[in-house]
Write a structure and sequence with these properties.
Arc Repressor Mutant, subunit A, alpha+beta
């Protein structure tokens, strides 16, 4: 995870004044295990910084992304853009049901970075690996919801709704 000083140096490099609000945005990004959206950052900091505008949050995030100080992850099924201050090689796992994004460290990603860099000659500045799926909590909720449904509404094993087999053949 980056240091707050790295993010603030990036803001200065972008020509932005280091206001208390921008410093708070940087601290929140570095200290958060979540992958917040601009709206979530604004909502969380607004009580302490009543003059903080959503435009300041977006401008700060855009400057940090533009300088490569943070990554923009895109949406997680919620239509909102999420941000990640962890630039170390890792996988992001996004739940399409609850929109939670978690970091998943993987040595494979680290090795892949090295392989790509040495084979291509590129000096890699960053990468994003984002997988979408259902988190364990949402899988449990989905299973419990199915178990509460009447038997006629539950999918039958091995058959899809058209009555044909849903088994995938091995490749």
């Amino acid at each position: 995870m980056p240091e707050v000083s790295m993010l603030t140096a990036s803001l200065k490099k972008a020509g932005l004044r280091l206001t208390p609000q921008r410093l708070a945005i940087c601290k929140l990004l570095v200290g958060s295990p979540d992958h917040p959206t601009a709206a979530a950052i604004h909502e969380q900091l607004k009580p302490e910084y009543p003059s903080l505008s959503l435009a300041t949050v977006y401008n700060t995030l855009d400057a940090l992304v533009g300088l490569g100080a943070i990554n923009v992850l895109g949406t997680a099924g919620d239509g909102a853009i999420h941000y990640d201050a962890d630039l170390q090689p890792h996988v992001n796992l996004a739940c399409v049901s609850c929109s939670r994004i978690i970091d998943f460290p993987s040595q494979h990603v680290t090795r892949l970075d090295s392989e790509i860099s040495s084979a291509s000659g590129y000096k890699l500045l960053g990468a994003r690996v984002l997988y979408y799926g259902l988190c364990p909590d949402c899988q449990k909720k989905q299973k419990n919801t199915l178990m509460d449904a009447p038997p006629s509404a539950r999918p039958s094993k091995g058959k899809n709704r058209s009555g044909t087999s849903s088994h995938r053949s091995p490749k």
